[in-house]
Amino acid sequence: MQASFAYNGNRMRVTISGGTGFVGGRLLAQLLPAGASVHLLTRQLRPGLPSGVVPHLWDPLREAAPPDSLAGSEALVHLMGEPVAQRWSPEIKRRIRESRVVSTRNLVSAIAMAEPRPQTLICASAVGYYGSRGDEWLDEESGPGGDFLAEVCQEWEAEALRAADLGVRVLRLRFGIVLGAEGGALARMLPLFRIGLGGRLGDGSQWMSWIHAGDLVGMILFALRYPHIQGVWNAVAPNPVTNAEFTGTLARILKRPAVLPAPEFGLKLLFGEGAEPLLASHRVRPLAAEAAGFRFQYGGLHAALRHLLKS
Ligand SMILES: NC(=O)c1ccc[n+]([C@@H]2O[C@H](COP(=O)([O-])OP(=O)(O)OC[C@H]3O[C@@H](n4cnc5c(N)ncnc54)[C@H](OP(=O)(O)O)[C@@H]3O)[C@@H](O)[C@H]2O)c1
To answer: d(Cα 14, Cα 3) in Å, to the nearest integer?
Structure first.
């Protein structure tokens, strides 16, 4: 059922950062027809935004978000961040960290100054928070890891939590690997798999906690609607799979072989330290979302991939 964000002629106003990206684009496409008024925080004004979206230019590393981007907004959804899936250099690592930690700090500074204040902040984070943990099951109560991305996620979430001290409801969503045909990991894998050159990464034993992009957007809409939801939610489907299982399922659906594994040393050569997230193991449960009554449309990988690949 499509949630409505307009009641008796009053439209809920939502401000989104990262709305030009993969997840944000999907969120806009659901919020607008549901009647919400959408304001966008972006580093670059560009043509081609969906009609009705009001853009606000923001340099997230240098200044608080502009006051008019927040004025009258009931909720903020903070999704911006330098892409993680690339070769890491010291400069890229700095950007990965600052685009999340400093931008969140500067967003919360704007919330502190806003009058009235938005009531809700939904901030992206990632299952990278837990670090690579082999076969261990992880839930929202599990402790953090100690690698680079785990530290970034902890700092990112700590900045978001400062909004709670201002009386704002804060939900930190630890995203798993978001699956959508138009972006993210799946779109990067598809060209190789389609020509039969896909294969597992490393020995393929690492757990992948994934979520269909539609379910992730569903979770954000659910959290916008229900004002009691706060804290941390793992934004992952209930059935994580190993990388070998993921690879096999994708290849079977595409009716292609997946016999060319990408060895660990090759990935490290190509991505440097950026190979870490490809080889990391996250076996994560969405306990908080399930306890709150959120219903996944795509709980199993096969159905999710079949839907996304329309096969
Ligand atoms: N996709 C996934 O599988 C996944 C998994 C775990 C966590 N996440 C997190 O979820 C959030 C949204 O993911 P996504 O895949 O939708 O992201 P995305 O498409 O890669 O990027 C979202 C937006 O971030 C802004 N951005 C890019 N580089 C930036 C930089 N250096 N500084 C500040 N802003 C920058 C851009 O917006 P403007 O150009 O308009 O400013 C971009 O459209 C990200 O923070 C990501 O880390 C995603």
So the answer is: 14
Tell me the CA–centroid distance for residue 216 and ligand 1, in Å.
Answer: 14
Range of the domain at 47: 9-178+210-236+283-292
CA of 128 from ligand 1 middle (Å) equals: 15
User: Measured in angstroms, how far is the CA atom of residue 82 from the centroid of ligand 1?
Assistant: 6
- Does ligand 1 lie within 6 Å of residue 25's CB atom? no
Does residue 222 form part of some domain?
yes
Summarize pLDDT for 97-108 with one digit per residue, the tens: 999 999 999 999
CATH number of 96's domain? 3.40.50.720
- Please tell me the total count of domains within the chain: 1
Task: Give the C-alpha separation, 243 to 265, whole Å.
Answer: 17
**Global model pTM greater than 0.90:** yes
Could you read off the pLDDT of 178-198 as tens digits, one per residue? Answer: 999 999 999 999 999 999 989
